[in-house]
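Hi L.,

You mentioned the student needs an example of a multi-chain input paired with its predicted structure. This one should do, with 835 residues in total across all chains.
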Amino acid sequence: MTNTKKPLLNDTFVVIIFAAAILAMPIWLDPIGGNYPDLLQKFAIYGIFAIGFNILFGLTGYLSFGHAAFLGVGSYAAVWSFKLLTMNVLPAVIFGVVFAGILAAIIGFLSLRRTGIYFSILTLAFAQMSYNLAYSVLTPITNGETGLQLARSDPRILDSLFSDGSVGAGLPSTDLFGETMSGYPGFYFCAVLLIICFYISMRIFRSPFGLMLKGIKSNQNRMRYTGLNTRPYMLTAFIISGMYAGLAGSLLAVTDPLAGAERMQWTASGEVVLMTILGGAGTLVGPMLGAGLIKYFENIFSSFDDNVLTQAFSFLPDSVVDFVVPVVGLFVGSGWHLTLGLLFMIIVIFLPGGLVEGFRRIFNYFRSGGKTKPQSVEAHNQAGE
Amino acid sequence: MSDIKKSGVSRRGLLKAGAVGGLVAATPSIFVKNAWAEEFRNNPENSGELKLGFNVPQSGPYADEGADELRAYMLAVKHLNGEGDGGMLNTFKPSMLSGNGVLGKKVTYSTGDTQTKSDAARASAKRMIEKDGVLMITGGSSSGVAVAVQSLCQEQGIIFMAGLTHSNDTTGKDKRRYGFRHFFNAYMSGAALAPVLNKEYGSERRAYHLTADYTWGWTQEESIKNSTEALGWETVNAVKTPVGAGDFSQYITPVLNSGADVLILNHYGKDMINSLSQAVQFGLRDKQVNGKNFEIVVPLFSRLMAQGAGDAIKGILGTTNWNWSLQDDGSKAFVQSFGAEYGAPPSMAAHTCYVQTLLYANACEMAGTFYPPEVIKQLEGFNFDGMGNGPTLYRAEDHQCFKDVLVVRGNENPSSQFDLLKVVDVTPRSQVEYDWTIFGGELGPYEVKM
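Structure written out for the whole complex:
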């Protein structure tokens, strides 16, 4: 309580650096093969998803296993906005966020009556329910397994109001007042939203509301004894978190106008939990890092086949290559899950605070001139930022 | 408050590291990217090699088919580059392929995992198009995936040569100018199967459908229903089952008391292996209903599935696009070189994928360019032979291939572990042809704006 040392970076500066790093991703991801629009878009979108999840999990400690439901609802709402209203992305994004918020209010209202594992199970149950609804019961709205897609014959009421109604020969593409939202423009759109989301998340972390949530995490009973009703705070955090997920879902539809039920499956919910823990739960940038790492693995490692490996190891003698390629091949291509699993284990065992704790240790090591400080080790348990 | 101090340090440490790359590099180069003009996407003119994208399921319920498809693709690339014995290059006519690459360029490839999910398949296809620079994408062992990737390819101006996809929608309601299908479809299965069903099981039957709940299952159920009801059969019930369900017992139990005497399984891959095995375990085939033997029909059959289902497959009727036991020159050449390479005969999924790759390469040769609209025009209305199915036509109006359809039966006395399907009947092409307008849909434009 006696800390007087001001952080070297104030919040504005943090956001500026964050924005620069995000917008420059096409440059610094180029050497590691990550510079192509689809992957960049995924980084930004899942970054939003993970940051939103972290507002709930990182601040309050409530582990939701059903966040994919909001992602899916956001996607469906966005695609329906493309089908019925206009190909402009703004209404789609707004509808995605609003519908996810409504669903989050309902699920949150019911689930937040319980804490701990019971809360996790409740959210998981609701998400699986949403998934099965989308998969089979609500097929007229969701088109089941095949996924909801655009068609030339869609009404698009607003578009037909403002143009002569001719949609051209092919399918229309999503746009922001004329700028097509695929490729690099799509990435920059998502990146700008990511930066805004990051800023909002930071404000929440710093606000009295954020402190209240941290209080709930460290001792909810004590909060109650002081005469405070924690439920409204929890519900608000849950809804904000759900809206972030809805935004991410609608952006998935913006960059690729298709919504499938598999986005709501429990594996997708589990993925965002992994992202957050991998990067560092409760930290500002950790979830974003975790999201990037997992998406990088999914898209780049899964594409390595024996062909690529043989080239990569071509500097070795042939006999060694014949031995190395099949062994390494187990961990890439369709075996990328295995690598990810190993990495996850290593991080959880040795760096319980995630990647962020790793960076922190390295930084402290250098700052103390090669002597590790014991305090950096205990830092992993803090609710901090 | 010491927390804040620590966290301040961490944030700074982290962000410094993150920002190094961003700030040092100059920003203007972002905007220069992709500024150079190209005539069409991924033009291989300067690279000296032609890159193809093989997008197959390596995980999920159709993984077995995906693995076999990938083997066939790699074999096709070998043959196109003049390695190996040439396979169907020697029997395919009219062909301009010489085993010298395509238009003098060496063929290379990039692979991806569709996970049998539309989302993952599109992400993987986008990676191939945007990062690896492929000029053509092929693969898919699920119609849902094929339809999703096909519409992506249309938007991107990349030709899509569909692998194993059997839904009517692929070249019907959801057909695209840039999408082509060599495989047959559910309508043809129904048309080919009906006469044999009539002969074997009579015209007074009560059918119960179990259907995989996505585009392929829906259209196959519809097609089989239409052709069996035309025979005079009655459809008792049609139940949708989720893809990859694993356990089908809850769906099979009601069949027992439904009064049906035929069970039609509109399932494929591991789903079909599970549902058929369980139906046999429940004793359905030993039952007598309405004074007739209870029968099971699997409209879309493949040898890989037969292998998985073991004894349950014996005596079951179905249709298939191709079988390795065919004795024409094309099939023999393909089975020969596939067997020499991998030690097992190819499945029908492998066959259609191999053929599609060769057809695309040949169309490029005929067009004399890789420019997609010209290649498409060469494929449309293309007549060819020597690819294992007899004389075949790529119909221009819907990009669907028309050829003979095989009706097969699970072999009662297999002579080897691969000899699982016996060809009962070869339904001539004329009997399975249909008017392309019945399914609706539009192909869309040749030129795609970039």
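You could point out the following to them. Chain B touches chain A through 64 residues (CB under 8 Å). Confidence is low (pLDDT under 50) at residues 1-9, 17-38 of chain B.

Best wishes,
N.
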